[in-house]
Amino acid sequence: MDASVAGSRGRPALRFLCPKISVLSPPSHSLLRWLVGAPRVLPPFTVAAVLRPTHGDHAAPDLPREADEIRGLLPRGFDIIGALLVGGGGSDVDVTRALEQARALRELLFGVATSRGLVGGHMDAATGDIRFVVSESAGTDSVEGSVVTWEDEPGRLLWEKGCLLRCELPLKLPLYLRPDVNSGIEERFSSLLESTVAKLRDPHVSYLVEGPITSSESHLSIILRGDDLSFDSHTHGNSRTNNCTTSIVSCSEFFTEKRHNLSLTREDADAIAITVNQSASSLKPGTTPVVEYFPGLADQMIVMKRIIASEITEQVQLCPFHFIPSGLHVPVTAIYNTRYGEIEERQSELRKELHIRLGLPLDRPLLRISNALTFGGTGKRKKSMPRSGSSLLRDVHREIPSSGVSGGVMSLIDGSYEYYHYLHDGIDDNGWGCAYRSLQTIVSWYRLQQYSSIDVPSHREIQQVLVEIGDKDSSFIGSCEWIGAIELSFVLDKLLGVSCKVINVRSGDELPEKCRELARHFETQGTPVMIGGGVLAYTLIGVDYNEASGDSAFLILDPHYTGTDDLKKIVNGGWCGWKKSVDSKGRNFFLKDKFYNLLLPQRPNMV
One of 163, 434, 500, 515 is an active-site residue; which one? Predict the structure, then answer.
């Protein structure tokens, strides 16, 4: 259904690429939502994301401050296309007020008073029903909308037509000051920055836009010029010349295979590189949507100007970082001061404000520098290696078939982990090291979610920790002694500052009774769980549970595997797979005559 023509009487429809819960859910002190779209890529009145105001309140947001922050947060190509009030009411006044707020914000953002392509609406917090109007012309008249749709594959709709354009432009702006003269510093700095922006728009400054190298060792290039953008496109390594205008150069010419969930590929994000050069030559003038990128570059510099001006004598080192946190399909930019590191208190407060604006949870470090997009596969540059430098298999459960539980609700680990098992790293721990391996997998989860930067500890380092805290005597170091859930909790507390919950079960038969509690753990904490019973230890990464029938299954990552890191062999061999307490042949996976301890590591409350 086309969003621009849908409706029983030809009235416009409103299409959401973000889930309904993202519009309704906290954290937010405001009931107002800014609607973000991509008019050049998406159909009219298509909402790619929602933002929460963080200044003022829903009745009277501080629009100038909102505009200043949103201008630097959203890449060019993404615009405010409307506003939505969430809560009670739903009168004509509410809908009209939302439209007026969106119109006023857009005027502050772009300096143009226009209502074209704007949405104003109200969402009932109890039912999720939305009433809205749209303004399709430049005037103030609006048309009541009809249908609201929520897309199942939002990333595909957005990124099959779009890709990221990124210009890496290091700048040094020398400003020489006398120690005894402080007057006029901010004015001089502002003037310096404005002149730099003017130079970027100079027609003699060229911007070379390059796609990635393909299998045939060729790549597409386009040259753009300052404010009077022109182009010259051709394919390197090939005598063929593309005689086309920039208006028909699409992302598919740069990327033949599109990725529709960039949050899962942040270590090698698709992007088109832009480099900047001075040139005296001239090219034929042309027009292109890419012109929006360069005001966006200027917007970032204006945001930086505001930050630097407040700390002009502190030698701030600002750098923009780009993020697409899980669940958000729109890239956002945060400008951090890297001089003091990301753990500095002010950086934490800035991240918290961004979490609130984006509707992200306040207990997960989604906008830390280590979570930023990297752009390894662009232009002639080689692809970057994974950040962790590890060659271990990750997230092996993604290849696992269904559990076989009829009508069950599946609750899984939230995030990535590495699979540690017997004989890894040349250590022969066959028969005694399964709990050590489970602990290593758990620590890898905290590393990959950016809660910790420490290396995954070796067996000996784990033993040293237990000796240091007084749990074991010195002869334990270098031994082949088993450890269990309690020792794992000691090590996690010492190395990561992580607290753990322990569930005791008297018999393997009782483990299915804990499925409800385990499901709650995966839904709220999302960390791997260690199950220890007798001399065996396993890593639990999910449960499937039918509360009505009691039928259940456990997704087990088995550290007793001794083979090579062959994903097919691991999956087919059942070393990562769904296990029922009693299988179809009457065999018990968990032993009746053994007690079990379940270690549930908790997620730190941090951003």
Answer: 434
